[in-house]
């Protein structure tokens, strides 16, 4: 896997993934940025959410669950000072579908957290306290 991050100006950077996709990262004005993109630590949080969601959807599809929507709400705490790494992250999955089996959703979230999500496993190994919850919503 490859990526390139190029400085634009101020505290703005363009990140390009090996697959050719570009994202803008920028800092807040009080740190010399112009608030024109996500913060680098927000990218880590978004990456975690994307990785975990990918797993949960894949697992639910394999178990033939009829999912119509899935979102994960992430909340994180960071250490004081510099550096300020994440200390705690909570992922709350809200899975919507038709006649979803709660036990299947629970299992999918657990498998993602404990076995499949590379981002979760990496952050956990670095000492971040990761917790998970889920909510099942019946589709209208």
UniProtKB/TrEMBL annotation:
<dbReference type="Pfam" id="PF02566">
    <property type="entry name" value="OsmC"/>
</dbReference>
<dbReference type="InterPro" id="IPR036102">
    <property type="entry name" value="OsmC/Ohrsf"/>
</dbReference>
<protein>
    <submittedName>
        <fullName>OsmC family protein</fullName>
    </submittedName>
</protein>
<dbReference type="InterPro" id="IPR003718">
    <property type="entry name" value="OsmC/Ohr_fam"/>
</dbReference>
<dbReference type="InterPro" id="IPR015946">
    <property type="entry name" value="KH_dom-like_a/b"/>
</dbReference>
């Amino acid at each position: 896997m490859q990526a390139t991050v190029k400085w634009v100006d101020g505290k703005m950077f363009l990140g390009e993934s090996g697959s050719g996709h570009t994202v803008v990262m920028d800092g807040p004005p009080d740190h010399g940025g112009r608030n024109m993109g996500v913060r680098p630590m927000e990218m880590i949080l978004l990456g975690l959410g994307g990785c975990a969601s990918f797993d949960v959807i894949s697992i639910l599809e394999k178990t033939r669950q009829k999912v119509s929507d899935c979102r994960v709400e992430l909340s994180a705490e960071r250490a004081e000072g510099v550096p300020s790494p994440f200390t705690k992250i909570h992922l709350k999955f809200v899975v919507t579908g038709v006649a979803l089996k709660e036990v299947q959703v629970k299992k999918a979230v657990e498998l993602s957290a404990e076995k499949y999500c590379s981002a979760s496993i990496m952050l956990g190994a670095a000492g971040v306290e990761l917790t998970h919850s889920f909510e099942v919503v019946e589709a209208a």
